[in-house]
Amino acid sequence: MSRCVILSACPVQPELKRLLRSDDFIIACDAGYRNCERLGCKPDIIVGDFDSAPCPQQNADDIVVLPHVKDDTDTEYAAKLAAQKGFDEVLLLGALGGRRVEHTLANLCTGLGLEQRGIRAALQDERSRITFVLPGESRCYPKEEFFYFSAFPMEGRAEGVYEKGSFYELEDAVLTAGYPLGVSNEYAEGSCCITVSTRQGALVVVETIAD
């Protein structure tokens, strides 16, 4: 699969370099270009209104300067650009945490929007990975390095939710935004995979390493 990596502005740790592939197409968003140095990579395109960092000095063909007054966040613009270029998968780094919690929420919306366009999306930082399960879809999550497993209704309500292979299994459950039933689950003893599906309403799935 062809993959685009979008680097947003939240500083990342060099350890995330392990997630990069040699053939990744990299889009840096505004101050996200500073993360390229931390990860030892070079952006193919830099986009942004450059309100959080000065516009870098490099080949002008590789920079898209956006207006300050716009509907799209810089990361959303980068996601739409990735979709236009036909990538099958998008990994967003530097999109979680930081001092602007609203940017994290906006980036979750961007991830869901990519999935709804048929592009597999993941947001990841040093401790967690966030992905999505759409209605009618079933996804298997191998245990890997993660310990905690949480699922939330991204669209406010999800019905017909199943979780198998987890300590607290769900069967035809309803998840609502007003009650965090799906938080802090774990892999069942002997389980190497949790399978999640939803009949109605998208889910956001958070995998987190142990404390």
UniProtKB/TrEMBL annotation:
<dbReference type="Pfam" id="PF04263">
    <property type="entry name" value="TPK_catalytic"/>
</dbReference>
<protein>
    <recommendedName>
        <fullName>Thiamine diphosphokinase</fullName>
        <ecNumber>2.7.6.2</ecNumber>
    </recommendedName>
</protein>
<dbReference type="InterPro" id="IPR053149">
    <property type="entry name" value="TPK"/>
</dbReference>
<dbReference type="GO" id="GO:0004788">
    <property type="term" value="F:thiamine diphosphokinase activity"/>
</dbReference>
<keyword id="KW-0808">Transferase</keyword>
<dbReference type="Pfam" id="PF04265">
    <property type="entry name" value="TPK_B1_binding"/>
</dbReference>
<keyword id="KW-0547">Nucleotide-binding</keyword>
<keyword id="KW-0067">ATP-binding</keyword>
<feature type="domain" description="Thiamin pyrophosphokinase thiamin-binding">
    <location>
        <begin position="136"/>
        <end position="204"/>
    </location>
</feature>
<dbReference type="InterPro" id="IPR007373">
    <property type="entry name" value="Thiamin_PyroPKinase_B1-bd"/>
</dbReference>
<keyword id="KW-0418">Kinase</keyword>
<dbReference type="InterPro" id="IPR036759">
    <property type="entry name" value="TPK_catalytic_sf"/>
</dbReference>
<dbReference type="InterPro" id="IPR007371">
    <property type="entry name" value="TPK_catalytic"/>
</dbReference>
<dbReference type="InterPro" id="IPR006282">
    <property type="entry name" value="Thi_PPkinase"/>
</dbReference>
